[in-house]
Amino acid sequence: MVPPTFLRTIEDSGFSTWLRESESPFAFYFVLLFHTFGLALLVGANTVLDLRILGVAREIPLAPLKRLFRIMWLGFGINALTGVLLIIAYPTKALTNPVFYLKLTLIGFAVWIITLLKDRVFNDPKLDETAMMARGATLAKWSIFLWIGAITAGRLLAYTYKYLTYPC
Amino acid sequence: MNLAHLHLLLNHFPIIGTVVALGLFIVSFIGKNDDLKRSSLIIFAAIALLTLPAFFSGIGAQRAVRKDPLVSTAVIDRHEGAAMLALFFMLITGALALIELWKRRRIVTEKPWSGTLLAILLFSLITAGLMARVGTTGGDIRHPEIWSVKDVTQETGLSSFVHIFEPKPSKFTDLMLVSKYWWAFMMDLHFIGLALLIGTVGILNLRVLGFEKRLTGASLHRLMPWAMAGFGINVLTGTLAFIGMPSYYAFDAAFWLKILALLLLGLNAAVFYLTDAFESVERLGPGDEAPRLAKVVAGSSLFLWFAVITLGRYIQSYADTIR
Q1: Domain count, chain B
Q2: How far apart are CA B141 and CA B79, in angstroms?
Q3: Over B18-43, what HEC string results?
Q4: In angstroms, rounded to a whole number, what is the distance separating the alpha carbons of residues B215 and A61?
Q5: How far is A155 from chain B, CA to nearest CA, in Å?
Q6: Which of A9, B39, B99, B169 shows the greatest Cβ crowding within 10 Å of its Cβ?
Q7: Do B206 and B291 belong together in one domain?
Q8: Is B152 in the same domain as B200?
Q9: Cross-chain CB nearest to A47 (options B181, B199, B216)
């Protein structure tokens, strides 16, 4: 089966070619770097929140950790943007690989969990710490599981693609 | 200066450092001196960190010395196998020392012995012995005048027993490259370790710098074992990756700058724990502003960790930049 031709159209564009082929350290690897920074902010901050909800370092007061959501959204924003740029650089590589859709699905669920954690655990002023932990426990476990899955799927993209660029 | 230079400079630290730390460690029991014990544990951890570049630079030294017709490959391989075994024991000793240092901060105990202390004694004794062998086999490469037998690769006595456990370097490399999925799995763990480490270290650093002052310093410091778990995962998977593709990493400028940044992080951690910066962070209550020294250490830590990520990401594009 030949991949759809719009992938070739993206790939042949000047911007895509520059991202992919430029020798400049501010092209492809720069985008990849910021994708990793975004991962560190998003998953790093979420992991701390999950661990605390699950009872790690109980001395940390839970309510002030609400500020971590800002860091998570910053990381998510960086990665949505750099993610799009990475697809523009290698559209055929990403979009013809089933693992890519698995990764997006896992991220979708993980981000949904973030919104649930915020709404159900942190935005309910009636809850004390014990109630917050009880209500967040299952969400926190899913969050860790989904992020490990998303990182794994992301890593696999470098090893499982069928086409690197559009087959001529 | 080239990598052979660097190797000759660094290779003395693990050998001498292990013996010094072991000596202090044993004396601390005889003299019942807890400060001395703490010092020896810090040296074990520091030497474990320094052993990494000593090991990594060996590949560069190997390339330089291989051109010499008087040097045999078998003698080099023997040294590399000995170094690999010693490195793993050194890393375990360093990790145990950090665990003991952490336990010491939390629990005041009258008991002179614990399982961890016993394990440190055992592993550091083995490490010291293995390091001696690494030094001897390394010396054998360039100094046939110290050879005790005609062919040093024919092991005798205790050496022949130790040699059974020393991996053949090429075999170990092949083992890392057995499947791209094994490699992908190691890299996967490296990224998971990164997220765990940056998340836990990052929030402590940010609080010291003034982010969300309702959080207290002491409570966030309780996350440190998780940060160290992430760091441990990454030292292990990183070292295994190096062993899998040694000449890919060893001649890469970004790789060496990343190692430099990690050594500076070790120095930064030493400044944090050995000055009053640590006590000031432990006392940081709700609303408190951290003193300047603590802020400098926290800022350096954040900067250096992001530098480590940056340099790691650029390893691929800076392959073969060191000749």
Answers
A1: 2
A2: 8
A3: HHHHHHHHHHHHHCCCHHHHHHHHHH
A4: 7
A5: 6
A6: B169
A7: yes
A8: no
A9: B199
- pLDDT > 80? residue B122: yes
Q: Give tens-digit pLDDT for B191-248.
A: 999 999 999 999 999 999 999 999 999 999 999 999 999 999 999 999 999 999 999 9
For residues B214 and B113, membership in a common domain is answered with: no
Contact between chains at A33 and B216 (C-beta distance less than 8 A): no
Distance CA(B267)–CA(A132), nearest Å, equals 39
Of A23, A29, A62, A65, nearest in space to A45 by CA: A65
The answer to whether residues B173 and B292 belong to one domain is yes
Same-domain status, B141 and B176: no
pLDDT in tens, A95-146: 999 999 999 999 999 999 999 999 999 999 899 999 999 999 999 999 999 9
- What are the b/e assignments for B73-111, b being 16+ CB within 10 Å? eebbbbbbbbbbbbbebbbbbbbbbbbbbeebeeeeeee
Is a pLDDT exceeding 80 seen at residue A1?
no
Copy the structure tokens of residue A27: 């092209």
Residues, chain A, total? 168
Q: What is the DSSP string of B216-245?
A: -HHHHHTTHHHHHHHHHHHHHHHHHHHHHS
Residues B83 and B126 in one domain: yes
Q: What range defines the domain where residue B290 resides?
A: 168-323
* Residue among B188, B223, B310 whose CB faces A155 most closely: B188
Q: For residue A158, list chain B residues with Cβ-Cβ distance below 8 A.
A: 184, 187
- What are the domain boundaries of chain A? 6-160
Is B228 near chain A, with CB under 8 Å? no
Length of chain B counted residue by residue: 323
How far does the CA of residue A42 sit from the closest CA of chain B (Å)? Answer: 9
pLDDT in tens, B274-323: 999 999 999 999 999 999 999 999 999 999 999 999 999 999 999 988 87
Tell whether B2 and B108 lie within a shared domain: yes
